[in-house]
Amino acid sequence: MQAATPAGPSGDFDTGPPFVFGFGFKDGAASEMHWEDLAAREAGYDWVWLHLNMNNVETQRWVRARTDIPYAAREALLAGETRPRVSAVADGLMINLRGVNLNEGADPEDMVSIRVWMSARRIVSTRRRRLRAAMDIRDEILGGRKFAAPGLLVARLAGQLTQRMSPFVEQIDERIDDVEDEMLTGAGERVRARLAAARHEAVLFRRFIAPQREALARLAADDGPLFDPHTRIDLRETADQVTRLTEDIDAARERAMVLQDQLTDQRAEEMNRNMMVLSVVAAIFLPLGFLTGLFGINVGGMPGIDEPAAFWLVLGACAVTGFGLLVIFRIMKWL
To answer: Would you tell me which of 20, 98, 194, 252 could form a disulfide with 111, CB atoms 3.0–4.6 Å apart?
Structure first.
């Protein structure tokens, strides 16, 4: 099998060979398939799973040449931008799902898509960037796990995608917990950027996880021959997990919004308190300024001009006036 090179740093598109991996299944047991002998060996299995790198031109030519795959499915397999959805096409299903981007240096909320065409005898999946959930299933198959039908593998893939989302949602929730704890300890000024980043990640994550919930619910409700009753139960459980994740991310967003409002209220309260202090100081110095201005005029008849103690008397009057104003403001609870 010709292995694809992993995605580059920061989750760049994989420009490696067309064939990521492939397996042929006979009585549930899997055998690895090779790109070179794909056409010759595909007919010898009960069903096959081909996982392709859609960035490769050879992959695009191969998909477009497959007349046994409906035109709508071929176009969907090579689509650039996708949202999670499930559509019935001819005798199969076209499934678009998203997973957390766990490539080195990538942002997890920059979710990786996988496009899957599923029929009774074939699963063809394509991706642009490396998807850990698909690699997990490949490792399970190489470890001896059997899949008797395509529906079982698709259900497992959906489960792996959902399982890898859970830690990311928990991380967002924990970061918001940390922000709330710091706010309660009086460190609110240092957490504004972190809170905004957490809210941004939650918004981006929900953009795809919400339609994925609907897609998995649609997949679990499919009553066609591609899924047996037990597989539908697994799909319903996965859809319920995605629903809980959606509810958790919604709760995290709401908490972040409440904390943002609290930060705004704290800032407004601090500004009001500072303005009150400035107003009180101005109120204290207003009569003192009047006194000093009055006794500073240079006109005849000013009392105390020839009195050596007059300066100290005026200074004492200012001190008594200022202290009296402080007492009055304290009684009025302005301070």
So the answer is: 98
Q: How far apart are CA 241 and CA 233, in angstroms?
A: 12
Round to whole Å and give the CA distance between 190 and 229: 53
Query: Distance between CA 283 and CA 116 in Å, rounded?
Result: 74
Query: Regarding the domain delimited by 271-331, which CATH topology (the fold level of the hierarchy) does it fall under?
Result: Methane Monooxygenase Hydroxylase; Chain G, domain 1 (1.20.58)
Q: Do the domains spanning 9-264 and 271-331 agree at the CATH topology level?
A: no
Helix (H, G, I), strand (E, B) or coil at 94: strand
Q: Model confidence over 210-259: pLDDT tens digits?
A: 888 889 989 888 888 899 999 999 999 999 999 998 898 888 888 888 88
Q: What is the pLDDT of residues 278-288, one digit of tens each?
A: 777 777 777 77
Alpha-carbon dihedral sign for residues 165, 170, 176, 182: negative
CB atoms within 10 A of CB 54: 21
Exposure string of 253-271, with b = 16+ CB inside 10 Å and e = fewer, is bebbeebeeebeeeeeeee
Instruction: Give domain limits for the chain.
Output: 9-264, 271-331
Q: What is the pLDDT of residues 257-315, one digit of tens each?
A: 888 777 777 777 778 777 877 777 777 777 777 777 767 766 666 676 667 777 777 77
The pair of structure tokens assigned to 208 is 């795809």
- Which value, to the nearest 10 degrees, does the dihedral of the CA atoms of residues 312, 318, 319, 322 take? 180
Contact assessment for residue 312 and residue 266, using Cβ atoms and an 8 Å cutoff: no
9-264 folds as: Beta Polymerase; domain 2 (3.30.460)
Instruction: Give the torsion through C-alpha atoms of 149, 151, 153, 155, to 10 deg.
Output: -150
Q: Which residue has the tokens 């595909």?
A: 42
The CA distance from 292 to 301, in Å, is: 16
